[in-house]
Every structure is written in C-alpha cells, then in structure tokens.
User: What shape does this take?
Amino acid sequence: MAMIAPSLLSADFAHLERDCRTCLDAGADFLHFDVMDGHFVPNISFGAPVLSSISKAVPAFYDVHLMLTDPLDYLPMFLKAGASMITFHLEANSPVQETIDAIHAGGAKAGVVIKPATPAQAAFEWLDKVEMVLVMSVEPGFGGQKFQPAALEKLSALREQAKKIGRPDLLLQVDGGVDRTTAPLCVAAGANVLVAGSAVFGAADPAAEISFYKGL
Ligand code: DX5
Ligand code: ZN
Assistant: This one.
C-alpha cells in the first residue's frame, strides 16, 4: 500500500489548519512542506515560522522538502520548528554526508532529492545512509506541472538498487504531477510515498482523493 503525502503548497493558506486536518482525517501519512528560497528555485513559498505554528496546532509527520541552495545552514530552524523528516537536493551546495548527519543529530529522518536532470545513479551512494530518496518528476519550484515519465525509470533503478543493498524498506518518494493517472505508474515502478499537491487540494473531495492513493 502506498503512503500519501499531500503537498501543503496547494493548500489554502488562509485555512492551513483546516486543510491539514482534512488530510490527516482522510488518512494522509505525511504532510509535505515545500520550502523555496527564490534562489535554488525561482519561487518563494513559506518557511520555519509557518512550520512551527502549524506543527504545534496540528501534530503530524512533517516531511520538509528543502529547495534551498544551502540547506545545511537552515537545518536548525526547521528541526526546531517540528520537521519530522528533512529532504534536501543533491544539486544544492551543502556537503551531503554532513547535512545527513546534522538532520539525524537533530532527531529527524533524512532524505536526498534528485531533480529531473540528475540520474538515479547519483543517489546510489546515499541509499544506505538515508531513510528516503525523493525523485522529482517535475522541475522543482511550482505545483501543477505535468508529470515527466522519465521519473519512472529512475524509480525502478532506485528500487532495484535498494533491494540489492538490503534496503527493501527504503522510502522512495515521487513529487510532481502525481495524479490518478500517474500515481499507479509510480507505484508499479517502486515508489511507496506519493506527494500530491494540486491533485489533492484541487479535487472536489480531497479526502476521496487521498483514499484513492492510499489504496494503490
Ligand atoms: C514542486 C514541489 C511539489 C509540488 C507538487 O517544487 O516540490 O511538492 O507542490 O505539486 P503538484 O502535485 O501539483 O505537482
Ligand atoms: Zn515537494
């Protein structure tokens, strides 16, 4: 069964608490929190103060996706704000092992993320050091983009490699353009955590949408 992590980027920020509760009541496993710095990606979203408020109001597993040029510098504030897991990009500037170690030392789970142009093999050396790998199926920065099918081969390659090194439990997440059509393909390719923003919050019935993904 797949896990579902609705992306709060597509929530109604005027009713963030309500939208988080809707997701959790419908069985969402993680709440995906997209942080953008206007530098690593050409967009700005929300930061640690928002995470701090929402994680206090709505206790949950907060899956924080850092789209930052220097993620290592910003870990303390997100750890303090209630991040349960922090993922950061291999394309960013921070030293990878040091960043993973700092996330773990802060008591959170750690993950690495690859953009569409980065091959799956770039993440192979980190598979035994992290709890999750995130494959971006769109260019990071914006919700509502079209799924790039090349992500499917990357998911398969990562799932195969994870099995090979004795990590069948590895969380393999896919993010971008996940909907009722693309989600089953992602699960078949080896993904077990689905991020969905516009598909969940743009649906007439977000709870029904979440149930659909959980059933995959
Ligand atoms: C994009 C973010 C995604 C985004 C996904 O940079 O990382 O999490 O919210 O949105 P959808 O599901 O609409 O593609
Ligand atoms: Zn994301």
